[in-house]
Amino acid sequence: MSKDAKPAHKRIDQFFSGPGGRADDWRDLVEAAKAWARGGGRAKYDAALAELLVTEEFHGYPGLQLMTALREAASAGDAATSLALATRITQALATRSFRQHAGDWSATDDGNGDVPELVPSAFGAHTTRRPYFETLIVTGVSSSNWPALAAEWRKLRRPTDAFVYEPVIVGSLEDAFCATMLNPNIAAVVINDGFGLRSRHDAPVLRSMTAAAGLNDEADASALRLAHIIKRVRPELDIYLMSNRDVEEMAGNPEANVARRIFYSVEELLELHLSILEGIQDRFDTPFFDNLKKYAQRPIGTFHALPIARGKSIFKSDWIRDMGEFYGLNLFLAESSATTGGLDSLLEPTGTIKKAQDKAARALGADRVFFVTNGTSTSNKMAVQALLAPGDIAIVDRNCHKSHHYGMVLAGAQPLYVEAFPMTEYSMYGAVPLKTIKQALLDAKADGRLDRVKLLDLTNCTFDGHIYNTRRVMEECLAIKPDLIFLWDEAWFGFARFSPFLRRRTAMGAANEIEAWMHDPKSIEVYEKQQTELGKNPSDEVLLKTRLIPDPRQIRLRVYQTNSTHKSMSAIRQGSMLSVKDVEFHTVEQQFKEAVFTHASTSPNQQLIASLDVSRRQMELEGYGLVANAMEIALAIRQAVNNNPLISKYFRVLGADAMVPAQYRQSGFTDYLAAGVNWANTLKSLDDDEFCLDPTRMTLVCGTAGYDGTQFKGILANEYNIQVNKTSRNSVLLQSNINNTRSDVAHLVRVLAEIAGEVDRGLAQGGANAKKTFEARVTSLMKDVPDLPNFSHFHPSFRGDAGAKTNEGDIRTGFYAAYDAAGCEHIRLGDPEIDRRLKAGPELVSANFVIPYPPGFPIMVPGQVITQETIDFMRKLDVKEIHGYDAKEGLKLVRTEALAKLGRPKPGAQPKLKAAS
Q1: To which H or E segment does residue 321 belong?
Q2: How many other C-beta atoms lie within 10 A of the C-beta of residue 406?
Q3: Helix/strand number for the chain, H first, E second
Q4: For every residue of 115-145, which 3-state class applies, written as one string?
Q5: Are 253 and 200 in contact (CB under 8 A)?
Q6: pLDDT per residue over 233-283, tens digit each?
Q7: Distance between CA atoms of 874 and 716, rounded to whole angstroms?
């Protein structure tokens, strides 16, 4: 959030500063120590240290000994020691060397500390690198006994342990929650009985949230309550409950299923230590990747396809050996067409791929996950093909990725297109309002065709960062049609699962919340109360205005989510996952197998599958911190661009208030950088607002600097080695991800400052003519923008069985009409014949998809009647890439005579398939 002037005292409930904020605090301490050591005052150093002492309690390193040493050096007035120790700790944190080197834990330069039990020899004894994590210990033991308790935990370390961890001890529910939020290194939590509710530190925002959750009394600080709170925030964490009461009773309580294991608290700690390591090992294991590594080390004779397997054809060649040297031997040793020897088959996984997919399902909160090795385009087509039959109706965002449209063609389903709200100034669309979706369902119901509406297909988040209120959309749609299937294309949003703020806005996150609500006895009461208020036959107008509640007894929860794992996690390009949470999956399982057989390669890339396996491991073990860093990077970019006096003259990153119209921000939320914004009111926005903005996606307006998006993208790439995601007429899209660093931010800001300086100098030195030319260019880019065309309608030839109110069409027949060359014609875009036919007829009917980049969605689909606004938009387009349109040939149209024939059944033709039940 906005990084305003630092408060007089440190608050523990500022959860948006992230890992970089902590690093900045330590660097501030070093700078204050330098000033003090040079003879300046020590007040600034004392203040910086006092702030750090508060939140460093929630981290394993530097730990109590080093923080005490810092405090004692300051109390003794020793500026030199304070500077030396603060510098060493800061460097260890920056390089993360403390995870492997025992010397970093010592208060002395020689690495021989005066508390030997702090770092037993086991910490640094391994010759190979051991992953490091921290374990949160929540206890009712007095804080004066915490050093002794920590020492007991450290004594459990053994040289044979695969991992090494440091305990972090807290004594209250609030501190446990804050530690979980502030410390991304925490990977396991041990909760003992007897801890308190309140932190001894200042936390007004946290207090308001705990009060809203009903946590007001010390008796509310139960181990099980805390376990559920932590699991909701960070579901990937292993939780261990330690009870000194009737553990058998607790173990038999269904509410205790959030715990990995329950212990009787007086038992030996070694079993708990081993359980913690086992839990980490479970997440660390990558079944397919582990077997692929073993396979690569075996002496195998290959009498199979794939000559490059084992690399012999590469490394023995004088002509292509350089490829082997570039990629390395292991890439080829791990290549194989075999599905035996632990490698498994992606088409019929029963072994290591199956195990890897099961782990991915756990990580993503799904019932099952499919690995896909040719991108989310294929994941989308697989889902559409498996879930829809010829004649089925699907409500589809017209601006969704082309794979959904092609999926409808393959399935023979009839898309009922719904429109997103336009952002004409920036030549982009937002997302589809819920009212529009509900209206489509109610229209189908009025036409007596609701049974044919099988699927709602939406993009979340959109290319430009618009996020749906997924829970609200699904609940309100289920109130109208309880068995509606949902397909959420979250190609760009896979990382959101690992953010406690954004998770609720994912398909799987919302589906799990709905499932929990359905099992809450109060849900029926809430539903029936609304039904009484609505009456027996509420009008459509009332239903559209009401936030509808579904009948929990009637819901058939069927949710599908596709993720481009390679777009936001550490997977190789084209790595995708398809997540399923569907109580009726058994009815479509065979269809899914057929869809897999249709689209998946019989020779999938082994390295790609392995990268999907490994990306899951990474996100389960460190995804929380990586995503927090990506969000922090994005906020730093927004802050640096919009607050820089020079850069902001010509560039700006659009805030939520510019990207989401006010009527869809019911909470009043304006932007992440607005004054007074904190995690509590951001949560309110994420819970209540119809649309939110993904903070990691930044629309940088460049039209105000005189550059169109394509032009500016080229300048950044060719002259400054900066790659951006997409463009619009007057903007480029920046995206932060788990790969970005603060150095990337610095490079981007420096480049923008340089370009802004060049524009500034050019205007200052060019005189009146230069300013006039510049202003005209800006006006052209920012004001003279084409209206965005909506979907018109399908031609009647493709609506033979359509309803009166709904606007679906037979896109498959329209698509294949283009295969009849004699039945099609071409008319150039500038030909006056187009204008004549728009006025006098006959209608212009598109024979194919026409997709300009940008904006990257079909402005024409097969069988669509072309309108004046679509032609105007195309004539104003100044982009080079338009899929489905040949400028030399012109628009491809279905001839009028061919349209007439399409409406007549052919002799001997089979009747159309009826909608599947």
Answers
A1: helix 321-327
A2: 18
A3: 34, 23
A4: CHHHCCHHHCCCCCCCCEEEEEEECCCCHHH
A5: no
A6: 999 999 999 987 777 777 788 888 999 999 987 667 899 999 999 999 999
A7: 27
> Could you tell me the two tokens for 327?
């990629």
Note the pTM of the prediction, 2 decimals: 0.94
Residue 325 CB-density burial (10 A; 0-12 exposed, 13-18 middle, 19+ buried): exposed
pLDDT at position 592 over 90: yes
Cα–Cα separations (whole angstroms), residue 577 to 356, 613, 615: 12, 11, 11
Identify any residues that bridge with 189 across adjacent strands, giving them in sequence order. Answer: 136, 239
| Rounded distance between C-alpha atoms, residue 770 and residue 90, angstroms | 50
pLDDT digits (tens, 9 = 90+) for 727-760: 988 999 999 999 999 999 999 999 999 999 999 9
Using an 8 Å Cβ cutoff, are 816 and 838 in contact? no
- Beta strands 851-853 and 881-883, pairing class: antiparallel
Q: What confidence category does residue 904 fall into, taking pLDDT thresholds of 50, 70 and 90?
A: low
Which helix (H) or strand (E) segment holds residue 191: the answer is strand 186-192
Domains detected in the chain: 9-108 (no CATH), 353-618 (3.40.640.10), 624-783 (3.90.1150.10), 793-902 (3.90.105.10)
Give the C-alpha separation, 413 to 453, whole Å. Answer: 10
Q: Residue 269, Cβ neighbours under 10 Å: how many?
A: 16
Report DSSP state, residue 468: E
Look at residues 917, 285, 899 and name the one whose alpha carbon lies nearest to residue 613.
285
SS3 content of the chain, % helix, strand, coil (to 5): 50, 15, 35
